[in-house]
């Protein structure tokens, strides 16, 4: 059975209902390890909105390797960007990676929603509001790391799936197209879908989980090349009888 390590989006954590629903759905077929990134939920440390969180995901994948032969990563929004960076640069890399609503560049401000979010994260009184959301922010980084779009081509031959909605009001679908072109990834650009965890239907969770299983370990032998997706898949599927388990994991004060 494949272990799926799940990374949440900015301001989320594993106990948020819409995140927990995704974890429960995935756990019907996979072993699931979910973590609170640094500065979020029950984890220590302070959030950098992506770059340092790569270390958190790396530690979670290392843990997953102790319990499963095959490990995949699945990230949403900030977690999707982290998953791409980790698959390209991490010490303990996955066998397959899926990124939902991921940005191609760090701290993008392409939309009004993102400009508001980072204004809150960077202003002193905004940081107080972030603490009310159980997010503790780190000081701004002094050095800018490479962007995901600059390193996504290093992930090959590990399979990469980019999932993005055409109605994403935080991160425009152009980011998914840039990642797809730069890295030769598989792309599902889904008509009408909005942003990250809150946009995930049970059917889409199943489809992403199936993709990870097919492209990880023994399932990889069945894999055939496929082109970009422009619309949600609609085929009927028989109920699965495979059952998994969920483990929630928190980071420490962490470097």
TrEMBL record:
<dbReference type="InterPro" id="IPR029058">
    <property type="entry name" value="AB_hydrolase_fold"/>
</dbReference>
<dbReference type="GO" id="GO:0003824">
    <property type="term" value="F:catalytic activity"/>
</dbReference>
<dbReference type="Pfam" id="PF12146">
    <property type="entry name" value="Hydrolase_4"/>
</dbReference>
<feature type="region of interest" description="Disordered">
    <location>
        <begin position="215"/>
        <end position="255"/>
    </location>
</feature>
<feature type="domain" description="Serine aminopeptidase S33">
    <location>
        <begin position="3"/>
        <end position="126"/>
    </location>
</feature>
<dbReference type="InterPro" id="IPR022742">
    <property type="entry name" value="Hydrolase_4"/>
</dbReference>
<protein>
    <submittedName>
        <fullName>Pimeloyl-ACP methyl ester carboxylesterase</fullName>
    </submittedName>
</protein>
């Amino acid at each position: 059975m494949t272990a799926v390590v799940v990374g949440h989006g900015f301001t989320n954590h594993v106990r948020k209902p819409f995140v927990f629903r995704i974890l429960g759905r995935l756990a019907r077929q996979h072993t699931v390890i979910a973590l609170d990134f640094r500065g979020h939920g029950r984890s220590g440390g302070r959030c950098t909105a992506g770059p340092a969180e790569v270390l958190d995901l790396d530690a979670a994948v290392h843990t997953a390797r102790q319990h499963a032969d095959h490990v995949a990563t699945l990230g949403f929004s900030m977690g999707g960007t982290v998953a791409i960076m980790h698959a390209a640069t991490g010490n303990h890399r996955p066998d397959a990676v899926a990124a939902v609503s991921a940005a191609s560049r760090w701290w993008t401000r392409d939309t009004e929603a993102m400009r508001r979010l980072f204004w809150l994260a960077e202003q002193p009184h905004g940081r107080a509001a972030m603490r009310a959301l159980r997010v503790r922010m780190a000081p701004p980084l002094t050095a800018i790391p490479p962007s995901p779009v600059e390193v996504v081509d290093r992930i090959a031959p590990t399979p990469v799936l980019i999932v993005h909605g055409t109605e994403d009001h935080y991160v425009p679908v152009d980011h998914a197209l840039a990642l797809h072109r730069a890295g030769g990834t598989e792309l599902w650009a889904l008509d009408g879908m909005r942003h990250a965890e809150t946009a995930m239907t049970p059917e889409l969770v199943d489809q992403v989980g199936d993709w990870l299983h097919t492209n990880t370990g023994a399932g990889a032998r069945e894999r055939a090349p496929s082109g970009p997706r422009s619309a949600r898949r609609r085929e009927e599927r028989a109920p699965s009888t495979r059952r998994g388990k969920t483990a929630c994991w928190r980071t420490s004060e962490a470097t």
